Structure formats: C-alpha cells, structure tokens
C-alpha cells in the first residue's frame, strides 16, 4: 500500500496569516495542503477561490495543493485552480452534470483527479470511472464546516472502496476527510485510508510538529 500522507485543511488555519501558517505546518512535517473550496450553494458556507491558491504559490509554498471543490457547477473552477497551481482537484459527483467529463478535464490540465463521496453517497458511483481516478476522497462528516465529529459509517465505506481499488489493481489513493484526530487515525488507516485530512486536530493544536508526529506514530504502530 501507499506511504501515508498527512494533509492539514487550511479551513482551520490562521487565515489572516495564511502563507506563514501553511509554511509552519509543512515545516512541522505535513505532506499536502488540503484546500477547501465552499460556495454557499452546494454547501452552506463560503471560503476561498483560485486567487488564494495562487497567492500560496506566490508566497513560495511548493508542497502539493489538494483542492477539494464543494461547489456547483465545477467545470469552470477546474481550469481556474489548475492555472493557480493546484496539484490535486476533487469534486462531488452530485455537483457535476457530467462526472466523467469533469474527471477528464482535471487530468487534461495535468492535475490528479478525485471524486468525493458524502456520507450518504453510495460507492457504486465509482464503477465506471475507476480508470479516470487518481484518488477517492471519503467524507466522514457532512461537508461545509471544520470541527465536526467523525461519522462511523465512513469506516465501512473505506473498507468497501479499499476493496474496489485493490480489485482494480490501479494506483489510486484513498483519502479521508472530517473528524480525523490522533486518537482515531489508526482505526481509519486500518479501514484502508492512506491520505489523512485533518483541520482542527492540527491547526487547533499548540504544537503542530508534535501532533503530526503523534499521528505518524499511530500510523506506524
Ligand atoms: C469539511 C472539509 C474538511 C474540514 C475538516 O467540509 O472538507 O476538510 O476542514 O476539518 P476537521 O478535520 O476539523 O474535521
Ligand atoms: Zn475537505
């Protein structure tokens, strides 16, 4: 299986000093920057667009930026974020009229393509698009806010999607997003996740390095 990646969500960062805070979390050992895009339409909250992604690149952030689009429509944003330095782009199938086309569009810009499954979204949506996917993102909260608690049915969904990925023989990452903490990350990894988004657990901690190291200890145990 794949090397575990830790992806702090900037939703919980200090937004008034975003560049500095993102650099700090990367210096503390994070692998990927998780970038939550909310449109007050697909989800009941509003965050940031492509110019902020570009600003992080201009500031000197070189780590992969994982853009999680909680927006509808999605297609126009794909090009905007790709040009602004996104590395990975994912969207919710309910938010795109043409899921296969949106996935192709992401790869056509040279980015890694992912689909996001909400807590109530079935996994068979993946059946005919496995060859278009670089990662699958399982939501373990309802999208829209940081700091919610982990929904346990996500563990069964992880096991289900892990089996599908393994059966496909493809190199597809399995990412989890929502309520990930030091005290549940091991169980989440055992269910099949290899990429771990954590917002409040990391940015809410006094010591980023210690928190990320504690997560890695749990993953290694
Ligand atoms: C929720 C977002 C998450 C969120 C995670 O809609 O997609 O990325 O920031 O935050 P925590 O880790 O606090 O649940
Ligand atoms: Zn997210």
UniProtKB/TrEMBL annotation:
Record's keyword terms, sorted: Carbohydrate metabolism, Cobalt, Isomerase, Manganese, Metal-binding, Zinc
GO cellular component: cytoplasm
Annotated positions binding substrate: 9, 68, 144-147, 177-179, 199-200
Signal peptide: none
Biological-process GO terms, alphabetical: pentose catabolic process; pentose-phosphate shunt
EC number per UniProt: 5.1.3.1
Pathway: Carbohydrate degradation
InterPro entries: Aldolase_TIM, Ribul_P_3_epim, Ribul_P_3_epim-like, RibuloseP-bd_barrel
Gene Ontology molecular-function annotations: D-ribulose-phosphate 3-epimerase activity; metal ion binding
Annotated catalytic residues: 36, 177
Catalysed reaction, written as an equation: D-ribulose 5-phosphate = D-xylulose 5-phosphate
Cofactor(s) the record lists: a divalent metal cation; Co(2+); Fe(2+); Zn(2+)
Binding site for a divalent metal cation: 34, 36, 68, 177
Entry note: cofactor: Binds 1 divalent metal cation per subunit.
Classification via CDD domains: RPE
Pfam families: Ribul_P_3_epim (PF00834)
Superkingdom of this protein's organism: Bacteria
Gene3D superfamilies xref list: Aldolase class I
Family: Belongs to the ribulose-phosphate 3-epimerase family.
Entries under PANTHER family matching the protein: RIBULOSE-5-PHOSPHATE-3-EPIMERASE
Role played: Catalyzes the reversible epimerization of D-ribulose 5-phosphate to D-xylulose 5-phosphate.
NCBIfam families in UniProt: PRK05581.1-4, rpe
Protein name in UniProt: Ribulose-phosphate 3-epimerase
